[in-house]
Amino acid sequence: MIGTVKISAQSSFGLSGYWTPLEENSTLMNSYEANPENFSSLKDWGLSFSYGGEFSNTPTSSLYLISLSKQIGRHFVSVRYTPGYQKDFIFNNGQSILIHDSTSQALDSKYTYKELFGFGYSYKFSGQFSAGFSLRYFKQEFDQESVEPVFSDTLYLNRFSKIDNINFWRADFGFNYLPSKYFSFSVSTINLFNINESAVDTTLIPYEIKKYKGVAFGLSVSPAENFDYNFIYETTNALQTGFDISFNIFNGKARIGVTGFHDNYQSPFIAGIIPAISFNTKFLGVSLSGVKYFSNRNIQHTFSEFTNEGLDNIINNRYSYDKVILTFTFALNTIAEKEVQFLDANIVRDIYPTMSDNYLNRPFATARVINLTHRTITIKPSSKIEGINEDRIVSPVVKIGPKDTAEVSFYTIIPQSYDKKKTGISFVDFFITADNSQPDDQIQKPILINGINSWDGKVINLRYFIKRDYQFSMDYSKKILSRYKSELDSMAYSISIFYKAKILFNNFVKELVYSANPTIAQDYVQFPNETLKLKGGNCDDLSVLYSSLLESVGIQTALVDYKPQNGIGHVNILIDTQLSPDQARLITDNDSKYFIRKNESGIDEVWIPVETTSLTNFDKAWQLGSEKFNRDALDNLGLAKGSVEIVDVY
Amino acid sequence: MKSTLIVILFFCAGIISAQNFKVEKVIGNVKAQIGASENWSQIKPGEILIANSTISTGEKSSVSLDGNNIHFVLKGSSALPLTNLKKMSLDQLILALAMQDMINTPRKKEEANSKNTAVYGAEINGIKEPFVVSSNFGVQRLNGAVQLAESGFKESAIIDAKETFRKYPETSKMSSFRIYFANLLADLDLNEEAYDDFKQIDSLELDSDQKSEVAGKLDLLSKKLMKN
Lengths: 650, 228
Known about the structure:
The structure holds 2 protein chains of 2 kinds. Chain A is mainly beta. In chain A, 14% of the residues lie in helices and 44% in strands. In chain A, the strands form 5 sheets. Chain A has a 14-stranded antiparallel beta barrel. In chain A, strands 20, 21, 22, 24 and 25 form a 5-stranded antiparallel beta sheet that branches. In chain A, helix 4 packs across helix 8 (539-552) and helix 7 (528-534) crosses helix 8. Helices cover 45% and strands 14% of the residues of chain B. The longest helix of chain B has 20 residues, at 208-227. Chain B is an alpha+beta fold.
């Protein structure tokens, strides 16, 4: 991973270095020089101090910078005070006062350039894209000594200072794009806006800081673990290039790097290098960097040279000396560190509320997540569907290795009380939580919530409609069977199952009329009470009704899924008579009207197929059911070929 | 799924286009059960029997059938569903056997729906469970299956016999029939299936000849299976 100290030439030159946006660390991006777009990976508050010394003829030291930053949601703001960003020039302005004793006094000029403070703002549009701006305030003080004659009893000369202040604001804009953890790209302006506070004395223009306009392009690449390469090019013909190597130590990360920079206004071609070493933990960062120029800095410059060449940068110019800078950074995180993040989330199945158990066993959505830490973490996915869930539904936890990605599955619970018949679009919030009490990341997606009568067309899922109005079916079946109590009580239990099935069928068909498609809408299934209320239904509805009535009195059933052939499918039911094969003759003399299945205990039982759409009588429905089952499921090997499937209701 | 009327029409068309047989000659007592009918009716020469009929012959009776390029005589004391009077390929037989295994596998309770344990009426009401005296219809079916095999329809005969063994459990204890049909499987090189059958047969009451035959077959088949 990357943690590069990038100190740019000219405009992008920064004393405390530039930390690549690819790396998550607590070192503050307190350099508006290399980072005018104010990008930061800071999570909450940040405080930074830079102190350093300059190796001039008379070594000096000063507090270079204090900065304070704060991340607020997607917004990042920072302010900085830069007392050490100052350069003073004292010149003999070529004038002198000749005293009568032949001595003379030279007149001096003192030009002071300061950057006092700055303000930065950025907005994170996504994990990959951020844009922002910075505002910096510069002060230029031109103090020129002069004399003026004073006429009184005697004529004398008054020596005085003429001070001109030309202060200005500089505003720049830029953006950062991080398409992956291996690559980042930035573009920022150089001197986009410069606003002077007051009118400029034209004689001082040559001495003002030069404000060439341009664009800086930054690139960071991490071709290998713990190695980074960085490059910045400015259209004002300056560039810098460097690399760094990092390694984990003492629960933190140490980095060593070096950057060489080319400044169009300095020589040689590589004007200098910035070696740097840093150590960062979650809360503290310390870095020691130096600036070493390759040209001799301890030479005298003339005023005319200065007048001709001017000054383009306060802290890095042809008059700058070698430096050493020590920077301390504190990250004051009151917000939990994000350990895991969503990459994307996909709804894999629409919600059919009646098929509620389906969502306990199979995920309705999946998401890809990334572990942002350097350790293995356990994450807890959860979701909340608007209009269905009142609380978050937690899905099974997943372990993810350091910096690794994983796919997580989301399951949900649909309450039995859900009774909306209308299909509509809702939203689902996905959450992932690592060690924190609050979710580390959240993402929202639209989801289709079908009405309770909606069905996905899979016969296996008709089971859920059979269960649905269980109490209704039980009451209805009881009511019918109670009329035949004496007959049923007088027969053996084993044979009574068959007769109960027969009685129920012969009674409910009296109330029904077959309708090929009473509700018109495709994949719409009526609950048992609805079919009886509407006095009709198609094969799905009638199979659901009959199966529900039988199941409600303890008779086991199965659905037979005759899969679509030429677009036409069908469903009817099988009934477990619980008779042994030896007892089959109690109900029929035709052995083609039943078949044998083993029950859970491995005992053979007689099952009979019934065509529920035959709303005549049980015997006819049984006959039609057996003929179809024998032909399609057995003789044509439909069960083996998969064109017919038996779906046990329970 | 919604167009059931169409399905029923399709279903009827299926019956009409199924392979039918013409009764050529009838000797003695020969009856047929047409489709899913509960009744048996005497058949006469010239009658057309639909494919999902079952025919049954009395003692010293026989019926000669013709249709679908098949000429077949069912001898006395036999029964045969006409759906099994067909030429099956070995692949079809393997599929059919797999299908029977599928049906034979005990059902597993699924977690999707909770089982309803409600029972209406008297489950235990003191009434003795009805006992059904075994008919010899199962044996008739096996006689029919043997004749199928002898007429060259070995694959169909195996399916017919296996169905009979399940629907008429007392026939599954008839070792001579079991050995006969297990040998058919072995003849068709379905060694694994034959081995399983002989293993089951080995647990039946066998006479000494049958015991040695079964032991020999098991030994031979296990060697064949080892080689594979």
